[in-house]
């Protein structure tokens, strides 16, 4: 490689990373538009049920994110097991999740106060294309096709916006919304298959992934649970009106995670590089900067922002939305460090996160569930514990590396006997 090409390669990767960030930012903005389109016609009561069931779906869709990380790592590293598209295990897990959801759909309808168990059945059907899409995203990330990956994220978001717009126009209920979202998921999966058509023709569809899936699933499940268990508890303990307001306000927290997820994704294939600690610190700085900007924008007029998002019925939850932005920044930092663990195939921070989740659930279920703000504050403390633990681990790793480098220098300079 010439000196000019060596200089051009990092700048090209930075440009592609920025492009992916813009694409995912647009996709997240469209996701916010879905919330705006559905929150008004459904109203706080039904919207709370929609969000609670969607949160359950997010928890079951955890393997989709794991397939993205594992497939990308297999394609970008020197894994002895070799590259794979992982389509067969993804399809098997998707069908299994669908079957489980269909069986327990009456219980889910009762627990989340849904008008029909068919809403849960339709959500279960969404899990199959979601698993496959995770594999397609992993292929694009592992191949370094960040532009195509951004297009897939945008296509997924646009299909959901169109589905939400149709539901809003038809005044569809929760069951109708999930039927439309199922069609949107199938459309996104088909587009992903088309983008990956050349790799799908050559990559093995099956592979020994059990150990990686269990470890990465545990870590990603910990993160997803950390950022979603609050919604399930809010729906159960708060009134329908307050749970609907909480659902909309918590979208501001999740927007911080969505808006910075491109940073966490980019570092996955780079964790096998020469400077993982430097990569993590830079990624954390980027996330913090985005969080500060987001907080400043919402702080100008929190009530206005939440009213624009959901209408006048949600105006009283403006201050809660601002607090949720702070929660989202802590979640976003935890996301960076947990994704770095999946990129390096370790699980220490993920185990700590599970412990934090258990404490959160017990604290909310037994004491702090009288108001939406109490639930947010408990989750904020838990997120900060994970975030600070991740930062401490990065700092200690950096110090250990520095000491090791100094030891090598001292040994090399020592006079030989």
Task: From the structure above, extract its key features.
mainly alpha; 417 residues; 0% strand; 2 domains; disordered N terminus; globular
Please give a structural write-up:
It is built from 15 helices and no strands. The longest helix has about 60 residues, at about 5-60. The chain folds into 2 domains: about 15-205, no CATH class; about 225-410, no CATH class. With about 425 residues, it is mostly helical. Helix content is about 85%, strand content about 0%. Residues about 1-10 and about 400-415 have low confidence and may be disordered. It has helices at about 5-60, 60-75, 85-105, 105-110, 120-140, 145-170, 175-195, 195-200, 210-235, 240-270, 275-300, 300-310, 320-345, 350-365, 370-415. Helix 10 runs parallel beside helix 13 and helix 13 runs parallel beside helix 15. It is globular, with a radius of gyration of 22 Å.
Note poorly predicted spans: 1-9, 400-417
3D shape:
globular
N-to-C SSE series? HHHHHHHHHHHHHHH
The percentage of residues in β strands lies in under 5%
As a percent range, the share of helical residues equals over 70%
Question: Number of helical segments?
Answer: 15
Content-based structural category: mainly alpha
Oligomer: single chain
Largest sheet: none
Number of strands: 0
- How many domains make up the 3D coordinates? 2
C-alpha termini separation? 41 Å
**Radius of gyration based on Cα positions:** 22 Å
Provide mean pLDDT, rounded.
Answer: 80
């Amino acid at each position: 490689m010439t000196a000019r090409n060596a200089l051009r390669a990092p700048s090209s990767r930075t440009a592609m990373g920025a492009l992916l960030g813009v694409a995912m930012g647009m996709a997240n903005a469209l996701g916010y538009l879905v919330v705006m389109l559905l929150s008004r016609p459904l109203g706080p009561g039904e919207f709370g049920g929609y969000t609670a069931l969607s949160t359950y779906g997010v928890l079951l869709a955890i393997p989709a994110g794991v397939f993205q990380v594992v497939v990308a790592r297999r394609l970008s590293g020197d894994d002895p097991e070799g590259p794979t598209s992982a389509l067969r295990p993804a399809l098997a897990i998707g069908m299994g999740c669908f079957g489980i959801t269909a069986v327990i759909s009456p219980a889910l309808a009762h627990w989340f106060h849904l008008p029909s168990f068919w809403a849960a059945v339709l959500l279960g059907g969404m899990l199959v294309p979601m698993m496959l899409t995770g594999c397609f995203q992993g292929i694009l990330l592992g191949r370094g096709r960040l532009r195509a990956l951004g297009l897939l994220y945008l296509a997924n978001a646009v299909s959901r916006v169109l589905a939400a717009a149709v539901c809003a126009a038809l005044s569809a209920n929760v069951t109708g919304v999930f039927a439309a979202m199922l069609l949107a998921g199938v459309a996104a999966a088909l587009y992903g298959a088309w983008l990956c058509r050349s790799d799908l023709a050559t990559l093995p569809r099956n592979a020994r992934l059990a150990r990686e899936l269990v470890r990465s699933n545990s870590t990603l499940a910990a993160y997803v649970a950390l950022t979603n268990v609050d919604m399930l508890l809010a729906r159960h303990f708060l009134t329908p009106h307050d749970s609907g307001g909480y659902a909309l306000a918590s979208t501001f927290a999740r927007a911080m995670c969505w808006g910075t997820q491109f940073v966490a994704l980019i570092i996955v294939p780079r964790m096998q590089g020469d400077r993982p600690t430097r990569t993590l610190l830079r990624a954390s700085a980027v996330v913090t900067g985005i969080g500060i900007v987001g907080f400043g924008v919402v702080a100008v007029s929190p009530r206005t922002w939440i009213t624009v998002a959901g209408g006048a019925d949600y105006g009283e939850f403006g201050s809660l939305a601002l607090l949720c932005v702070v929660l989202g920044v802590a979640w976003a930092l935890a996301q960076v460090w947990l994704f770095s663990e999946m990129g390096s195939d370790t699980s220490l921070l993920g185990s700590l996160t599970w412990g934090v989740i258990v404490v959160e659930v017990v604290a909310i279920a037994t004491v702090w569930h009288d108001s939406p703000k109490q639930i947010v504050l408990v989750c904020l403390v838990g997120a900060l514990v994970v975030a600070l633990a991740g930062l401490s681990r990065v700092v200690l790793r950096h110090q250990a590396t520095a000491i090791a480098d100094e030891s090598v220098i001292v040994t090399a300079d020592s006079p030989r006997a």
